[in-house]
Amino acid sequence: MIKKGMRRQIVLHYILVVFLALLLVEVIFLLVIRTYYYDSIYNRITTQISQGEYFYRLSNEDSPISLQELLRIFALNSTELQVLTLSGDMITSSTGFQPDRTITTSDVPEAVGGGIGRWVGRQSGTNESVMAVSKVLQSHGRDVYVLRYVTSVERVDTDLFNVTLISAGIGAAVLVIVAAFSFGLANSIIKPLNNITAVSAQMAKGKFNIRIKGDYRYEIGELASTLNYMAQEIVRSNQIKDDFISSISHELRTPLTSIKGWSETLISGGYDPEETKLGMSIISKESDRLIGLVEEILDFSKLHQNEMKLSIGAVGAKELLQEIILNLWAKAEKKSIRLVLEAEEGIYVRGDANRLKQVFLNLTDNAVKFSPEGSSILLSARRADETEAEMVVQDSGIGISPDHLNRVKDRFFQVDSLNGGTGLGLAISQQLVELHGGTMEIESELGKGTRVTVYLQLTEPIPAPETAGPESLPGTGGTI
């Protein structure tokens, strides 16, 4: 007995389907064979009875002599020819016996009704399987007798029974072959699945270096490849996580060391106001750095858990980029980097101003970080089409290699770990852009620079509220 499982289901289903198909085919085959044999007998008798009827009409003699002549000429081998009255009483027979009995089978009434009667069944007395065919004989335009042929179909039934046995044997052989084939097919599916299950159990225990081996095809091959890829990605993610922990530990330790060192120094006292002011400035700067790191990690956690809330409104693209330039102008000035703004007037995008500022601050800060001294960074905004705005941050810095370009938006990934950071900036920016219903594309060539393009949905500006009188607002113009 096969134990419960997919193997048993496959084998049983295959055998059941083939068994039902064979049963249907054999039943139809046997019915056709039986019909063919019975119809052959019936057609032969029908031809003979029609000739006998024709002979009787030509003889035009309504006498016992003509009936005996009819019996002699048109008798068939292994067949009894009977002449009956219209009520079914037997008058004479080709066997020479004239039993005093009335034929009550259905073929006689059918013949009297004007057709050729046919009946198949067991003959009373002998219990032999027979076929009876009857037809009325006419004389001078009126019905006078019923001509009836009775033949045994025992041999036909025996032949049909033998054919049935042979068909059943062939069907049983086919079922055995199908069972063997289904076992082989089931094993070809179950063995790889058992292997995959065993390897998956090892992976569940944390052994992600193990792989599913075997050249499996079709869906099972795809499943094996997917699990191997999953294990590979988990190993890579774990490595990235370990690198991140190492990196963030270093990033956190550096400002904490500075804060602790200057705190102890200031507590000891004996320093002039200038040194005290310098120490407090360093403590404040490193505290801001720590806050920035923590906020970046918190933002990533919120995005990862789909808890980031956006305050959607109309954001001016030019004003947003101007604010980015003002925030990073001092940092860029230290490397003599020129920040250039090229933005069309009247472009408003649908989004959260603070989160979009976070995105472009990160992109522009990366551009400043990886650009050489004396270079330029372009920030531009224009209408891409009727529904989208195209906002670009383009530098002429070190660029990104093709190997790293596909991974720069992965969380914790850093192209150059020596430059610091958590490796979350681009991953957060990518997710924030997607939360706004936009897309972010990165194009880069090693040694020639990087171009980051953000596509956001256009919207109409929100009308300013009416004021009691004219108000003078400071304006900004030109290029920074």
TrEMBL record:
<keyword id="KW-0472">Membrane</keyword>
<feature type="domain" description="Histidine kinase">
    <location>
        <begin position="247"/>
        <end position="460"/>
    </location>
</feature>
<dbReference type="InterPro" id="IPR004358">
    <property type="entry name" value="Sig_transdc_His_kin-like_C"/>
</dbReference>
<feature type="transmembrane region" description="Helical">
    <location>
        <begin position="12"/>
        <end position="33"/>
    </location>
</feature>
<dbReference type="InterPro" id="IPR050736">
    <property type="entry name" value="Sensor_HK_Regulatory"/>
</dbReference>
<keyword id="KW-0547">Nucleotide-binding</keyword>
<feature type="transmembrane region" description="Helical">
    <location>
        <begin position="160"/>
        <end position="186"/>
    </location>
</feature>
<feature type="domain" description="HAMP">
    <location>
        <begin position="187"/>
        <end position="239"/>
    </location>
</feature>
<dbReference type="Pfam" id="PF00512">
    <property type="entry name" value="HisKA"/>
</dbReference>
<dbReference type="InterPro" id="IPR003660">
    <property type="entry name" value="HAMP_dom"/>
</dbReference>
<dbReference type="InterPro" id="IPR003661">
    <property type="entry name" value="HisK_dim/P_dom"/>
</dbReference>
<dbReference type="InterPro" id="IPR036890">
    <property type="entry name" value="HATPase_C_sf"/>
</dbReference>
<dbReference type="InterPro" id="IPR003594">
    <property type="entry name" value="HATPase_dom"/>
</dbReference>
<keyword id="KW-0067">ATP-binding</keyword>
<dbReference type="GO" id="GO:0016301">
    <property type="term" value="F:kinase activity"/>
</dbReference>
<keyword id="KW-0808">Transferase</keyword>
<dbReference type="InterPro" id="IPR005467">
    <property type="entry name" value="His_kinase_dom"/>
</dbReference>
<protein>
    <recommendedName>
        <fullName>histidine kinase</fullName>
        <ecNumber>2.7.13.3</ecNumber>
    </recommendedName>
</protein>
<keyword id="KW-0902">Two-component regulatory system</keyword>
<dbReference type="InterPro" id="IPR036097">
    <property type="entry name" value="HisK_dim/P_sf"/>
</dbReference>
<dbReference type="Pfam" id="PF00672">
    <property type="entry name" value="HAMP"/>
</dbReference>
<keyword id="KW-0812">Transmembrane</keyword>
<keyword id="KW-1133">Transmembrane helix</keyword>
<dbReference type="Pfam" id="PF02518">
    <property type="entry name" value="HATPase_c"/>
</dbReference>
<keyword id="KW-0597">Phosphoprotein</keyword>
<keyword id="KW-0418">Kinase</keyword>
<keyword id="KW-1003">Cell membrane</keyword>
